[in-house]
Amino acid sequence: MLSVMGAMAALSIDVVSFYTARSEAQLAADGAALAGARVLANSGATSDTTGNSMAGAWTLAQAVATQVAVQNPVGGTTPTVTLPTSPGGTNTNPTVTVKVTATLPTFFARIWGTTQVTVAASATAEAYNPSGAFAISSTTAPPVAPLCVKPWLLPNIDPTQGSPTGNAIFGPTGGIVNSGLLNQQFIAPGLVSRCGDCSPGAGGIPSPMPAQYYPGSIADFPVPTVLPACSSGLTTSYQLAVAGCVPQPITCGASSSVAIDVSPYGTFRDTDTVAAASCLIHDYGTNLDADSMSTSSTNPPFEFVGGNQNPIAGAVGSNTLVSDSLVTIPVINNTNPASPPASVAIIGFLQVFLDRTGATMSGGTAVPATIINMAGCTGTSAGAQPVIGNGASPVAVRLVTPP
């Protein structure tokens, strides 16, 4: 009896070890799938409705997912990682499936002739862009709600051209009108305010113009709790909302709305914007301070070169997929709101790269911006639970398979 009990106790040690290894394999698969999907989300490929950019983005996503998986040991060993040759889902809502396996030696189970056990786990993550396959539906697609959104309410007009009656960015159902806007710069001199002071006493709210934003209300874009050190020189709540990461998710879709700031501000909105944006992107006076766009990536997946003031030392001078110069801007419908109050509906988001030009940003009154991602959600269902975005990208990343 003692021998049998001892054997069962010894076997239980093996069983617990393998259950632990199975959990480690699942964590490795989950992390790898999410990392690969994040590459697709940040790359801009989900905004290319032609699908021509997905192959390059998928190659990069495979490499990142594999790297993340092998950095997570399973039972003390490096796992084997398997990914398909192409992403699942659609070009605008691709999925990344990762399978992790590891063959582990047994200890006490050897008395029954079992010397090795293989543990495995798989996970699937999605880069969810609501302007893609679900944009044609008004009842099934949840909206997105990214974080760190900047208080720049951009009208739904192509910001690369000068006509206020030009093409829209997003169509009536939230679909992307022209994916050729990717890697295009806003019309010169760049992003500027439509009304430096939108208060009734200063003339109120003018009609929409391309590349000209309305300032968002501080109630919808509250001051971030964590701010960069350079923000000590900024003086207004608006500037702090630009320089830091606003923690309040901003939802788009049929039932979303935010307010335009109609409180008196003064005539320095554009210069205040440049000062805050310079802090955000670590532009402290020279051309090499801030990150820049890599000249080798003219199509998705877009890459960026770390500037001398990049807070991650290893990123300086190296290509990277993320940057503090990447920001998300809400796109609003073009209905000219009454003033006051000035409530507008958010129908999508642009992710843009703020690119330093010359000695200062466009003479100190405008911010040059290049379009990296587009996510429209006019046609999403009202009242649906929003999908929280992943930082600066309006394309959300989520696991779509249970552990």
Topology overview:
Blueprint: H1 2-43, H2 54-70, E1 80-82, E2 88-89, E3 94-105, E4 116-128, E5 144-145, E6 152-155, E7 192-193, E8 212-215, H3 237-243, E9 258-259, H4 269-280, E10 292-293, E11 304-305, E12 319-320, E13 326-332, E14 343-344, E15 346-354, E16 369-376, E17 387-388, E18 396-399
Parallel strand pairs: 5-17, 6-13, 7-8
Antiparallel strand pairs: 1-3, 2-3, 3-4, 4-18, 6-8, 9-14, 10-11, 11-12, 13-15, 15-16
Brief summary:
Helix 1 runs antiparallel to helix 2 (54-70) and helix 3 (237-243) packs parallel to helix 4 (269-280).
Radius of gyration equals 24 Å
* Adjacency order of strands in the biggest sheet: 7-8-6-13-15-16
Largest sheet: 6 strands, mixed
SSE succession: HHEEEEEEEEHEHEEEEEEEEE
> What structural class should be given to the helix and strand makeup?
alpha+beta
Distance between the termini: 39 Å
Give the helix tally. 4
| Average pLDDT rating | 85
Question: What is the number of beta strands?
Answer: 18
Low-confidence segments: none
Helix content: 10-25%
User: How large a portion of the residues is in β-strands, by DSSP E?
Assistant: 15-25%
- Taken from the alpha-carbon principal axes, the silhouette is elongated
Q: How many structural domains are formed by the residues? A: 2
